Amino acid sequence: MKAAKAFDYDDVRIVDLPEPEIGPEEALVRVTLCGICSGDVTPWYIRKKCPIVIGHEPVGEIVKLGERADSRFSPGDRVFIHHHAPCHQCRHCERGFFSMCQTWRESNLDPGGMAEYVRIAKVNLEHDTLILPSEMSYREGALIEPIACVVKAFKRGRFQKGDRVAIIGLGFIGQVMVRLAEHLGAEVVLASDFVPWRLERAMELGATAVLNPKESEETFCDFVKSHTDGLGADFVLVGPSAPKAIQEGISCAAPGGRVLMFMAPQPGVKMEVEPNELFFKEIDLVSSYSCGPDDTRETLSLLQQGVFPVDKLISHEFPLEEALEACRLTAAAQESLKVLVNVSAE
Fold first, then answer.
1. Single pTM value for the model
2. Are 107 and 85 a contacting pair, CB within 8 Å?
3. Domain assignment of residue 27, given as a range
4. Buried (b) or exposed (e) across 317-336, using 16+ Cβ within 10 A?
5. Overall number of domains in the chain
6. In this structure, are 129 and 114 located in the same domain?
7. Residue 346 confidence (pLDDT) above 80
8. What is the DSSP letter of 320?
9. Element (H, E) at 340
10. What is the rounded CA–CA span in Å between residue 239 and residue 146?
11. 39-82: per-residue pLDDT in tens?
12. For residue 4, what are the β-bridge partners?
């Protein structure tokens, strides 16, 4: 079978691999589409995993089941497959911190989402493989995992209806944040980015007002305060991992506000924070890593309700043979939102 294998962050090749063999409690899925995540193209993050078959946002069709596989599934089922799945038994799972579960962290797709066939282990099949409703397209299904990460972020940041929300960065994730904030009843949704067409898209998806800091003498923090009675935002979502962006997010927060870090900074990166400001303004600085089975199920429901207009969120689709070009487009972060790879394209 064909698969896209990364040998470095900018070296993705189409290789021939043997079709995975499944065990008695596992499944074999023929992959249709797989989204590209920023993690697939972040040099420091992907390099430590290379060589690796990239992709962890696949959807496809079950073509084979082991004789003792979960009876909820049948060959022909169209499914979303989460690359990680928790045990549901450890202390982390009991507390709802599924991404801290050791089983969750050790589970994965074999060999990876950007392959023609993927083996689904027992824990993934039973705990976070979802049958797509008949009316849901594969394109919609391919957005379940990344949108679920945003759904979790809103929980981690304790979003409340009526919150004044500020969003830094309007790539695919930032656009989803805008749409979800508006859908859940934010009082205002303020957002910033350096790419003009992304600002326009955010307005289409529900932003109240947007700012391009490169084209304005006003800082984003001043912009946020001018739209929030001088107070700042109750909930600030910071997409970029750069310390400067996180620091800006803290400055944008209102007293009692929450600042959410969405992306992982590179190991060893330091950031200056003034504890006095955090203390006397009672600002919470929290992170949100990946998503769990509760988030994927909630996201599937939101997609069924039509909350997310997928055609405004998916910008490009490439055949598997052009996976490197798809990755480079995603890494450039100028002309794309969600980029999909059509693994099954003839």
1. 0.96
2. yes
3. 2-146+291-342
4. bbebebbbebbebbbebeeb
5. 2
6. yes
7. no
8. G
9. strand 338-342
10. 13
11. 899 999 999 999 999 999 999 999 999 999 999 999 999 999 99
12. 14
